[in-house]
Amino acid sequence: MLRHSQHRPFPLPGGFWVMKQVWNDLLFLHWPADEAELLPYVPKGVELEYYEGRPWVSMSPFILSPLMLRGTPPLPFAGRFLELNLRTYVSRNGVPGICFLTLEASSRLAVAGARMFAHLPYQYALMKAVRQEDGFHYNSERRRFGREAAFSALYDPADDAVFHAEPGSLVHWLTERYCLYAADRKGNLYRGHIHHLPWPLQSARVRLETNTLAQSYGLYLSAEPAVTTYTTRLDVLLWAVQRV
């Protein structure tokens, strides 16, 4: 993976990666969003990014398996779990990245570790994913300050064709991101670099059954996403987050 970096918008970071994750059966759902609703979640020191004048948010349910620290086998009790992200798009000094509003996960250990060491807004949720003949059934449910933050969908790839997003396209702008930004409780800003090969994307067939996750954060999105894709598997390397 490290030999192939020409697709990145900026060079590989220095030092060694510390963790490898594999994301399986990942659904990408993307919506244009309202700037005023998003700005409260953008940390100081980064700027909200826009595509053709609109900010965007994305949700991505997937199975994380395995999770391994460098030089170790998969972690016991946290080597496999479900995850559901809600994110938006930001940059700092011209370096594009992502900012998470929440990362729902089915592993309490993974939630505690990510909150402590990466300053990411992970939260534990009751989650279930089952593959059946009619597709992939994915469910997540949590209550936040008395509000339901639930997600339920049936999805699968629409066909077998795999493609890479065209540079300059909306899908490329949404998917090909190689760092994340997060702030701790004191407002200190951190950046974490990641690396993977270009996203192997497929057209997706999706039926959203419940989706109150964004609404629980004060985001009011259209009932149906503007863009959807599916990825069978993506191998990802992560570097330790550093204060910037």
TrEMBL record:
A Pfam family matched in the record: DUF2071
Signal sequence coordinates: none
Protein name stated in the entry: DUF2071 domain-containing protein
Source organism per UniProt: Paenibacillus stellifer
